[in-house]
Amino acid sequence: MSLSTAISRLESLARLSDHPGHLIRSFLSPSSRQAADLLLSWIRDLGLQTSHAPDGTLRGILPGSNPSAPPLLLGSHYDTVIDAGKYDGPLGILSALAALESLAQQNITLPFPVHVLAFSDEEGTRFQTTYLGSRSILAQLDEKTLAATDANGITLASALASEGWHHNASLIHYPPHSTRGYVELHIEQGRVLEQLNQPASTVSAIAGQTRLAITLAGHADHAGTTPMPLRRDALTGAAECILSAESLARSHPPAVITVGKIAVHPGASNSIPQRADFTIDLRHPEDNERHALTTELQERFLSITDQRNLTLDWNLVQESPATPCDPTLTSHLLNSLQAITGHHTSLVSGAGHDGVALAPAMPIAMLFIRCRDGLSHHPDEYASPEDIDTGIQILTHFLKSFTP
Ligand SMILES: [Zn+2]
Q: Which of 31, 34, 304, 313 yields a CA-CA distance of 20 to 30 A from 45?
């Protein structure tokens, strides 16, 4: 497969959408099925044995010279967010196929099987359930996940039963420690590689996350009649907290803290804000650091609200631990990165990926490809053909030189 084939396949997939005006492929939708059929036909064209699970997970198997040896898994996801770009997900699947094609052209037979996996739900756009596909290949989904509902009130369990692709489906399952690992190529979704002027990097870890819902409460008074010293303004308190969160993150790289949402009550131009609700999204590749920063943040907020005579309501909404990439698998990938590009860069992934779900059961490694302006989850998402080609070359080199 030439590079131009991989690019034209990206374009073909991008035309398959649930909505005509923008790209969205949600879990088990008709366009998702069309994308799956197309992907399966391309995998079959490469001579791989194909199968699919009822949840839309696709698999292609290249047996290699020892079909009973533990396989190496390559892949990514083919679902998208709403108004998505073309590269997040599909690039990982198509570059894996391109690397296998390149090996075939060089008449190379690997001493172990390679399984190409394409997951039908990573983003969780329909059921707000991330990593559905990768979780499903390790274990049955738990009751809470199966009870999740979409915008129409349909549960995941009933969607799987009535909309699942049961015809000719087979179970795709990997017991713990039954593979050589999972390697995923993905766009960086950030600006670091662009700033370093490098086409690709490995990934050292996928950052852990803490999500908080914060409420500051004061008193709603008249904007004209309340002198400044008598005020208990929840919004100015929130402003001080938010700036303090920003300075905390700035002084502790690679920590990132974001306040993405804020609401003010009563929300009138002539009323002093009585309440301010805002969110905190705190990420760090090391869990003990993330915990320490969360504690420090809470102390800062308590001190600010004390001084301003406000009350602080601190709610933990969600917490997910950091996922380190496997050092051995990553060093193999790093050697290939260096061989192809001359660079030796490893980044932290601030965004989540299927490797988070797979890491408890197998070694994981990731290869990041530079994307323009760091833009992702957006129709202008773009990775250059040259960088995609570099990614395919790195994957090919990695497969050839990987001696587990
Ligand atoms: Zn993705």
A: 31
pLDDT tens string 234-269: 999 999 999 999 999 999 999 999 999 999 999 999
Report the CATH superfamily, name and number, of domain 3-206+322-401.
Answer: Zn peptidases (3.40.630.10)
How many Å lie between the centroid of ligand 1 and the Cα of residue 367?
Answer: 12
Q: Rounded to the nearest whole angstrom, what is the distance from the C-alpha of residue 88 to the centroid of ligand 1?
A: 5
The yes/no answer on whether domain 208-320 falls in CATH 3.30.70.360 is: yes
Q: How confident is the model at residue 318 (pLDDT cuts 50, 70, 90)?
A: confident
Distance 221 CA to ligand 1 centre (A): 47
263 φ/ψ angles, rounded to the nearest 5 degrees = -135, 140
pTM, full prediction: 0.90
186 Cα to the center of ligand 1, angstroms: 7
Q: Which residue is it, tokens 């999740």?
A: 148
Binned at pLDDT 50, 70 and 90, residue 140 comes out as very high
41/92 Cα distance (integer angstroms): 17
